[in-house]
What we know:
Blueprint: E1 3-8, H1 13-26, E2 28-36, H2 44-53, E3 58-63, H3 65-78, H4 95-109, E4 113-115, H5 124-135, E5 140-142, H6 144-147, H7 152-162, E6 175-179, E7 182-186, E8 215-222, E9 225-229, E10 232-233, H8 236-249, E11 254-260, E12 266-272, H9 274-290, H10 293-311, H11 318-330, E13 336-343, E14 346-353, H12 361-364, H13 377-384, H14 386-398
Helix pairs in contact: 1-7, 3-9, 4-5, 8-9, 10-11
Pfam families: Arginosuc_syn_C, Arginosuc_synth
Binding site for ATP: 8-16, 117
Keywords: Amino-acid biosynthesis, Arginine biosynthesis, ATP-binding, Cytoplasm, Ligase, Nucleotide-binding
Amino acid sequence: MKNRVVLAYSGGLDTSVAIPYLGKMLDADVVAVSLDLGQGGEDMDSVRQRALDCGAVEAVVVDAKDEFAEDYCLPTVKANGMYMKQYPLVSAISRPLIVNHLVQAAKEHGGTHVAHGCTGKGNDQVRFEVGFMDTAPELEIVAPARDYAWTRDKAIAFAEEVKLPIEQSEKSPFSIDQNVWGRAVETGFLEDLWNPPTKDLYSYTEDPSLSAAPDELIISFEAGRPVAIDGRKVTMLQAIEELNRRAGAQGIGRLDMVEDRLVGIKSREVYEAPGAIALITAHEALEDVTLERELARYKRLVEARWSEEVYDGLWFGPLKRSLDAFIESTQEHVTGDIRMVLHAGKITVNGRRSSHSLYDFNLATYDTGDTFDQTLAKGFVQLHGLSSKIANRRDREAR
């Protein structure tokens, strides 16, 4: 029986060449699978036709924008998911969705193998392959760029040899991955940490120094889910898209960082995620009002661990599932409105209201009518600092 490879197909040179190459190396038919995650650019019908023209026996195109927003971006908002306190997991949360659709295509089309275009240096090989191992361990995994020492030069030469109907454009200095949640740029002159990003690097955001007049808006949440902007009901996808436009116009969401990759190397990455940063900022501000202190403190620890699990490709792992359950339980009262101003690359929260608020004006006020019993504070302070006081007394006497 002939092998059948299900390939994660982007439509670019590398994955286009992979279709006949995998067919040759594995004596296989290739089924190409492409997902629309709101990345924009080329029409998906054109991508599908290119896969067929390059020799795929089937080409599956999936409009997964709403699924991505609901099942992957929304949990990231609820978790305030930020790897290394900065990166909103733009690429990391898209990989398990792609895995699910490749596995589904393998079941529908009799796939024996799954394939991706990642190299051996990056995180995505882990995200794809651990995802396949977790959800469909019977499928064999192949990665041409890694397993066959595939390079762009080799890809171009092979394309010429087999006369593939694709344009072999000049090599871009950057590696770019994008979806509706954000945009990731690496390599090229960015590999020198002293080189600043140039203006042409950005696509989702305007130069913050040239931003328009301040944009004030209100984001409404119900149980941690954004449900309206300025009183207009929105789906999760619509919320991301609108905030990409409005926050992007103000230059919000740009990030230039040196990231700790899972494989053990440090990598310089430039990100744009205006909608993601705006939503997470608003969600965090509402949690400040609605989560009890000890729960909020512990959730911040969980958020960091959740982000690491997702970044490390363990979306389907048992710890991630358990953390999901904890995070979801914290969202019951995260309902209300956040007003904020977007301007010149910054977000300023200037209003908060919630029927579930834990803010008590009569306890917080310093004016007449204050209900806080200050006579209790003296004893509280003495007991709170007692253990530290005793330890410091011991240390002084030991000198």
